[in-house]
Amino acid sequence: MSALIRLTSRALALQRSMALNQTATLSACRTIKTSPKKDETVAAPASVTAEDFANPSPKNWVSYGFDYKSEKEDRNAAKSTFFVSVTLCLVWGTFFWAYLPDTQIRDWAQREGYLELRRREQAGVDLVSPNYVDPASIVLPSDEDLANTEIII
């Protein structure tokens, strides 16, 4: 029992020393300051002429990759391409695909299967006939044809 008390007291002492070290480290970090002077600089605007207003040239234009010479053509091509691909293909294509009629008639086949099972249960016959295929029409190989072939049932 005394060993448990000693272990607990050592753990508490370790936690206290770690907390003191952490606060000392944080207080040392708080004394470092940076100057905001780089954000306070003012740049004199360049002289603007009437031609600059008439023909504005985009300084930081990054092309979407459709047209490298005209910003207007590039933006129009990008917007129309994304509209067609996202809205028409993805949205309307998914809507159309989801509401297509059953072309392989799976719903009809399942419904007919359930109706046939119900009819056979009410009639009291086997659900699947053991003679579904006429045994006389099946041609099986003879024992000589099989020879040493392993047959797994």
Layout: helices, strands, pairs:
Elements: H1 2-30, H2 50-54, H3 71-98, H4 106-123, H5 143-146
Radius of gyration over alpha carbons?
42 Å
State the shape: flat
Number of strands: 0
The largest pleated sheet is described as:
none
Order of helices and strands: HHHHH
Mean pLDDT: 81
Helix content: 40-55%
How many helical elements?
Answer: 5
Low-confidence stretches: none
Cα end-to-end separation:
70 Å
Strand content: under 5%
Structural class, from secondary structure content? mainly alpha
Structural description of this entry:
The protein is mainly α and 153 residues long. The chain has a domain at 70-125. Helix content is 55%, strand content 0%. It has helices at 2-30, 50-54, 71-98, 106-123, 143-146. The longest helix is centred in the first third of the chain and has 29 residues, at 2-30. The mean pLDDT is 81. The chain crosses the membrane at residues 82-100. Complex I is composed of 45 different subunits. Interacts with BCAP31. Its main location: mitochondrion. Keywords: Electron transport, Membrane, Mitochondrion, Mitochondrion inner membrane, Respiratory chain, Transit peptide, Transmembrane, Transmembrane helix, Transport. It is a single-pass membrane protein.
